[in-house]
Amino acid sequence: TSFSLSDVGDLSVDGVSGDDTLAVLGTTADDTFTISDTAVIHDSLQGVNTIANVVALTISGDEGADTFDVTPGTNATIFIDGNDPIGGTPGDTLNINSGGAAVTSNIGPENDEGSFDVAGSRTVSYDHIETLGVSGPGAGPGAGSVTITATNGDDDITVVGTGVDDFTVSVNDSPAIQYTNFTSLTINAMSGDDDIDVDVNMLAIATFNVNGDLPTTSGGDLLSVSGTNVNFSPSAADAGSIVVDAQTIAIASTEQVFFDGETGNGTLTLTTPSGADSIILLPGSTIDSGNLQA
């Protein structure tokens, strides 16, 4: 059944009961949607002002460089399909408002798809999205946390500090997701020989955990960190901590650690566990390179 609308002020959709779904379609223009599980508002055209008794929402952008501003809720799952254009910058943009809740990012099988789980809310999944951002509550009590769940393959994970509590994270060839106002980050690399690259810059969040998890071959997981000054404190063959400038990173199940001093004017400190340790320095091919084993 279909019907046309004319001269409508507010539109309400009530599924009444059952597993009802609602799909909202965009236009060939650059659409902007403000989305929750109780309303889908279009910036210039008719939206749905009130939604009730619907368990799944789908919002499709059609053509154009569309923007989807999403606040997850407890009533319905939300699926965002950017459609065309596929690729390009900025393309279709998805912004997630997490409030004060913890966020888990799940990487999809293709580089422009995946999902976000915000604690206390139902899943937001996406496809054909080129630009992504997640906003948190900022510093202080209840400040938000981010968990990145990679794949079971050999992943390339890149973290770039863009502020004191702001950073981007990309996994393999997926777009870099901008996280703003978060004070905790956990990287779960999962299985595979994973490479985790961290460019600290001005980053200084309270908690930063890197879990390499299980490697599938003898190479193991590699954590590479760049900055100016570093203090590396191993606690086991695959664990310890590294302090780079103002950022401390806790390391677990990671077989190799590499530090890039960038400008070459910093200081490297190795702090070994208490007890009788054997430390081996293998000089590199230049005056500012080498290998330390403890």
Short structural description:
The chain is an all-beta fold. It has no helices and 28 strands. Helices cover 0% and strands 45% of the residues.
Helix amount: under 10%
Extract low-pLDDT stretches: none
Order of helices and strands: EEEEEEEEEEEEEEEEEEEEEEEEEEEE
Mean pLDDT: 90
Sheet with most strands: strand arrangement: 2-6-8-12-11-10-14-18-20-24-23-22-26
Shape: elongated
Task: Note the total helix count.
Answer: 0
Distance between the termini: 72 Å
Number of strands: 28
Description:
Strand 11 and strand 12 (124-127) form a beta hairpin. The chain has strands at 12-14, 21-25, 32-35, 40-42, 50-52, 56-60, 67-70, 77-81, 93-97, 103-107, 114-118, 124-127, 131-135, 145-149, 156-161, 166-171, 177-180, 184-188, 195-199, 207-211, 222-226, 230-236, 239-244, 247-252, 256-260, 268-270, 280-283, 290-293. By secondary structure, it is mostly beta strands.
What key phrases describe this protein's structure?
mainly beta; 13-stranded mixed beta sheet; elongated; single chain; 28 strands; eleven-stranded mixed beta sheet; 45% strand; 294 residues
Secondary-structure blueprint of this entry?
Layout: E1 12-14, E2 21-25, E3 32-35, E4 40-42, E5 50-52, E6 56-60, E7 67-70, E8 77-81, E9 93-97, E10 103-107, E11 114-118, E12 124-127, E13 131-135, E14 145-149, E15 156-161, E16 166-171, E17 177-180, E18 184-188, E19 195-199, E20 207-211, E21 222-226, E22 230-236, E23 239-244, E24 247-252, E25 256-260, E26 268-270, E27 280-283, E28 290-293
Parallel strand pairs: 1-5, 2-6, 3-7, 6-8, 7-9, 8-12, 9-13, 10-14, 13-17, 14-18, 15-19, 18-20, 19-21, 20-24, 21-25, 22-26
Antiparallel strand pairs: 3-4, 10-11, 11-12, 15-16, 16-17, 22-23, 23-24, 27-28
